[in-house]
Amino acid sequence: MRVVIALRPTDAQAYNFLGYSLLLHQKDPAQAAPYLEKAIEYAPEDPSIQDSIGWLYHLQGKQKEALHYLEKAHAGLGDDPEVLAHLGRVLWHLGRQQEARALWRRGLQLHPNSPQLHEALMHP
After folding, report:
1. For the chain, which domains are there?
2. Radius of gyration for the chain, computed over Cα atoms and rounded to the nearest angstrom
3. How many CB atoms neighbour CB 123 within 10 A?
4. Is this structure's pTM higher than 0.90?
5. Please, what is the average pLDDT of the chain?
6. Which helix (H) or strand (E) holds 1?
7. Which positions ≥6 away from 27 have C-beta within 8 Å?
8. Which among 77, 75, 83, 78 has a CA at the least distance from the CA of 104?
9. How many Cα atoms sit within 13 Å of 64 on the Cβ side?
10. pLDDT tens digits for 7-29?
11. How far, rounded to the nearest angstrom, does the alpha carbon of residue 121 sit from its chain's CA centroid?
């Protein structure tokens, strides 16, 4: 992805892919942040990028900022299981546990085989 970014320096999806991969596999918000901030700068209305930046903010402990972006991602992507898992975790951290559980349960009705939703509900 770094090659893609070098060739197309305003490719929001490349920044998002690289940044989210760093969050997911390296568990390194500090390293992922510059890429995700570029992605949201270049495509602020892209719901998949909103999900990624929201998850970044959650991992950084910025729950209110995370909620803002994850609610937008949910509105744009609907009941995507990964977005529901992320949104529910932020709601949980904001003290809205009942709302989080209801969101995860509804998500499991729609996506009964989602490992993200099962994990979220079992280990909030």
Report:
1. 1-78 (1.25.40.10), 79-124 (no CATH)
2. 14
3. 6
4. yes
5. 96
6. none
7. none
8. 83
9. 0
10. 899 999 999 999 999 999 988 89
11. 17
